[in-house]
Amino acid sequence: xxxxxxxxxxxxxxxxxxxxxxxxxxxxxxxxxxxxxxxxxxxxxxxxxxxxxxxxxxxxxxxxxxxxxxxxxxxxxxxxxxxxxxxxxxxxxxxxxxxxxxxxxxxxxxxxxxxxxxxxxxxxxxxxxxxxxxxxxxxxxxxxxxxxxxxxxxxxxxxxxxxxxxxxxxxxxxxxxxxxxxxxxxxxxxxxxxxxxxxxxxxxxxxxxxxxxxxxxxxxxxxxxxxxxxxxxxxxxxxxxxxxxxxxxxxxxxxxxxxxxxxxxxxxxx
Length: 270
Prior knowledge:
Order of helices and strands: HEHEHEHEHEHEEEHH
Mean pLDDT: 82
CATH topology of the largest domain: Rossmann fold
Oligomer: single chain
CATH superfamily of the largest domain: P-loop containing nucleotide triphosphate hydrolases
Structural class: alpha/beta
Helix content: 25-40%
Largest sheet: 8 strands, mixed
CATH class of the largest domain: Alpha Beta
Number of strands: 8
Strand order of the largest sheet: 1-6-7-8-5-2-3-4
Distance between the termini: 27 Å
């Protein structure tokens, strides 16, 4: 992890404290939910995972390796959420059996491992990586975050063929900014031996991320060696002139795939 500048440290502390205070105000209201529950949408979007599993310890970011499902932006959204929630992230890359070029899968894993993240390459079909996954899940309450089709159910089925019979489902009702009602299903699985898993259906990974466009850069550790050299102190590392981060990408000091992912994320944020 690279050191934040003093300004960035202050900004990030302020952002995280603000989110925690808002979450605390919500919990001091009715807090518990039973069956169907409604809550302010902006709060739910930033803390839905915490509400679904208040005591969870690990966020497992499940991402399929097989195209066209592969999305580094969703991996990075998950990593940002893990920082906000102050929990341990685990990147679980699935469907390794469908990858035609193993070197590409290893390249993606290496990018994140070099940043200090734990990465597993798995296949629910062949069983590759499953023993390592079980070890990482045991004696923890984990939330599995991923898009439909990422392979979460296949992983659980490989871990426990009868997992679906052990599932407890709760339903949340959210109100979007445009007034539309959104349904989210919280599925909790207790597979024994301390292996407790929650995952959420009904929202995209992007739907769980509620940071402002100008905040996203603070969660990319590898940018921090270069941000002080940007011409603008408020540089978003997008279209600005004199951006030291973009120069670092051009020199190969920041992974192009990570920068591409960052660009995709900020384009979707307001």
